[in-house]
Amino acid sequence: MMGKGVKRIGVLTGGGDCPGLNAVIRAVVKTAVNRYDLEVMGINDGFEGLIHGWIKPLTPADVVGILPRGGTILGTTNRANPFQYPWKDENGVTRPRDCTPIILDNLAKYGIEALVVIGGDGSLKVARELAQQGVKIVGVPKTIDNDLNATDVTFGFDTAVNTATEALDKLHTTAESHHRVMVLEVMGRYAGWIALEAGLAGGADVILIPEIPYDLSKVCAKIMSRTEQGKKFSIVVVAEGAAPKGGSMVVSEYVNDTFDPVRLGGIGKKVAQDIAAECAVETRSLVLGHLQRGGSPSAFDRILATRFGAAAVKLVVEGRFGRMVCLRTPNIDSVDLDEAVREMKRVDPEGDLVYAAKSVGICFGD
Ligand code: F6P
After folding, report:
1. Which one, of 231, 238, 175, lies nearest residue 206 by Cα?
2. Spacing, Cα 267 to ligand 1 middle (Å)
3. Which of 5, 108, 312, 339 has the most crowded CB, counting CB atoms within 10 A?
């Protein structure tokens, strides 16, 4: 079956990287070439590559061996908003420029008739706008944060949870040996999915997430009650977006060249200092950081990424543009790009994950 009039597609990865990107790229290329006889062009470094023409053919030979590899062979950036791209004018002055016409020209120049955009909410919003300008686009949802409402889960999340869980297992042994409280700060932006699921899998005693503002006295009461039971150590997982009741998230940096105006970070250190001061226990903190974004994707993420990549090409072939593939367990489905970026998915404080966690004694500081 040939793609509905489409003979050549482009693929790009945008925003922060995550495990499984290469598995999607591989599935897109293999499905497009082997199943539908299409040509594929790889666009380097996300939308920036589309502006500068960093575009080259991508063949099945180029994707050999990349299924288990972390990162993205195409490169990515979370700093290139093509509608306000920093552009040096003839006087050497840099100003924001709407690069849509340049992108349209490059798509035409390279004969790219449809585009597969693999990205999170920032890249998918760009994709939606380009789709409104007439570009034939299909989106694939990626992010370790798992904060896109239109899909049951994003690829990359499972691997990040596994990485954080492994870290918690390791922290348990050193916390126990030294009779300490260990505080692990994990990523997730404004959603607490990584903290919640890793905390559950890693047997944390306290989980702090943005969706449930915490009260330090409740956290300390939990730690002290463990001490009274003879458990002289505790494990605390803190999502980077967590905040105390009536307080605000800890921002490590304000940034003006990305989709997200702030970079979160520092709450783990604050929680550790507050626990040490309030409970008089030795406390250490660490930030897991970008380790969560690196490494080989889990089997779950490899499979999901492969299903997403194959489904994205099928949408192209069927001429169903302006859509994003998604998981509606047990099937791969698709949604309109508008719906894909409409709502952030956050943890339900009354949901069954939190219920299960509380049932096994995990404290959320509420
Ligand atoms: O969205 C993915 C994510 O890893 C977030 O969890 C984190 O807040 C952010 O990206 C970090 O971005 P950067 O790579 O720019 O530091």
Report:
1. 238
2. 15
3. 312
Q: What is the pLDDT of residue 4?
A: 63
State yes or no: is 62 an active-site residue. Answer: no
Residue appearing with tokens 């996300």: 46
pTM of the complete model: 0.96
Residue 176 lies in a domain: yes
Q: Is the CB of 18 under 6 A from ligand 1?
A: no
Question: What is the Cα–Cα distance from 274 to 226, expressed in whole angstroms?
Answer: 18
- The residue to mutate among 79, 163, 187, 196, having the most atoms of ligand 1 within 8 angstroms of its beta carbon, is 187
CA of 187 to the centre of ligand 1 (A): 7
User: What does the pLDDT read at residue 259?
Assistant: 72
Q: Which of 295, 45, 19 is nearest to 143 (CA)?
A: 19
- Does residue 3 belong to any structural domain of this protein? no
User: How many A from CA of 15 to the centre of ligand 1?
Assistant: 9
Q: What is the pLDDT of residue 257?
A: 66
Tally of domains in the chain: 2
Q: Residue ranges of the chain with pLDDT lower than 50? A: 1-2
Ligand 1 neighbourhood includes 16 CB (under 6 angstroms): yes
Evaluate whether residue 180 is within a structural domain. yes
What local confidence, expressed as pLDDT, does residue 261 receive?
81
Clarify whether residues 46 and 105 are in a common domain.
yes
Q: What is the pLDDT of residue 79?
A: 81
Which residues have a Cβ under 8 Å from the Cβ of 177 and sit 6 or more positions away?
Answer: none
Catalytic residue among 145, 147, 158, 205: 145
- Are 257 and 289 in the same domain? yes
